[in-house]
Each structure stands twice: as structure tokens, then as C-alpha cells.
Fold:
Amino acid sequence: MFGLVSASVPELTREEKQRYNSIYCGICREIRQSCSQRARLVLSYDMTFLALLLMSLYEPEEIAGSRACGLHPIKPRPWVDNEYIRYAARMNVALAYYKCLDDWQDDRKTSAKVMAKHLQAFMPALEGEYPRQCGAICECIGELTRLEKENCGDVDAVANCFARLMAELMVYREDLWAPTLREVGFYLGRFVYLADAVSDAPKDRKGKQYNPLLLSGTDPHSWEEYLVLAMAKCTGAFERLPLVQDKKILDNILYSGVWTNFKTRKAEEQSDG
Structure:
């Protein structure tokens, strides 16, 4: 369910690419510092969107630097650090932990079990610092697991479960922007779940895997219009936020990147299916 919320890089200017990558590297750097080198393997571009959105809204002071690392040992890469990048890094780890547990329980993936065991050491601190967000992740992924085991064909029930998870992650603090951020997150989460289900339909049908669209008695492609509706509601809430800093990169992600990524994934899955 992850990997869709990223930029259409070819459409970014050179400066925007540098800025986007510096946020990504900042999150990666923070995961290494607060967790471990190995934990960086769960890094996702989706959390770069979260960091950029909160940074644009609250405009914090930033610390910047440049250095080579184990993943890029030759050329130093710029990074940015602030409280929202640190928040995005921690949410990345929490999401990855529960996703690995889910992958192990559902598919018995040994790699997921090993990573979950590694990330488990960092969860008490994360749950203590962010009880609302971690509680929402745990509750919603648990609910998703239950619905999947029941072969639930109620697409809205399943999609909205993941949407509630995303809604809570978008809210860093309970303030006057929290309701709008939850709205952005809810409809973005709904889009992500439905897009994933649509693109995975051929593979899931062939492998007889759970997919609520296949159980709903409807053509999976008919749900693409609901993707448009979900993203329209997401961007409607997004445009109500007073965003200036990095707004063009955020626009790229929501108006172009998610659709480019969806079409690419859909084409790949249909080809494999």
C-alpha cells in the first residue's frame, strides 16, 4: 500500500529535485540516528510528502548539511533536519513495523518477520511519544487483518479503515489545522488503498489472493472513478491549508505523482497478471 505518494520527478525543476531529495535524505538520516542503519531499509517516499506538508504548514527552522553515507558513499548528499522530518521518520518506522507483522501473519514472509523483530526494539519509545498515532496504526491494521480474514467484500469499509490510519498520521498536533489535515489524510488513504486494490486485481485474481474489489461483484476498473473522487476531496482539503513553502512540490505529488505512480503500477501488474 505504499510507494504511490511520491513526486513525478521529471516534472520537477532542478532546484525542486534537490529540495525533494534533501527531505528524503533527512528522513533517512534520522531513521539511522534514532533507530539503526538497518532500519533505513524500510524508508518510503510517502513520508517525504508528510514531512513536506507539515513543514509547509508550520514553517519551522531548518538545519541543513551534506555528507556521504553507507548508501551513497562517493558523493555527499544534502539533507535537512527539523521536528517534522523527525516526526516523519518515526512514523515511517512505526508503519513499517506493523506492516512487517501483517506480512508475516498473512504470507509468512521470513524477511518481514526478521525486520519486524529488529524494529520491535524501537516501538516502546515510539508508542510512548506518539500514543495516538501508533494506536491508530495498530488498531487499523488489526481491523484490516480481520476484514481480510473474513473475506469482506465491502470495499468502503476496508478502504475507510486504511483512510482513518492515514488521517491520524497527518496530524502532528491537535490545533486549528488538525481537522483539515485529517481530511487530507483520510481521502489520501482512501485513494492509496483503492489504487492498490485496482492495480493488484489481475495478480490477486490469478493467485486467489484477498482483494475486496474482486469480492464486491463489480468490475475493478469501475472503481477508478472513485479514485478521482477521493483525490478531488483530498486536494480540496489540501487547498484550504495556507501553504507557500514547497507548494509546487506538494502540487506535483498530489496532482501528478500519485496518478503517474498508479498508472505505472497498474500497467506492471496487468502485464504480470
Summary: The domain at 9-255 is CATH 1.10.600.10 (Farnesyl Diphosphate Synthase). The two ends are 18 Å apart (CA to CA). The mean pLDDT is 92.
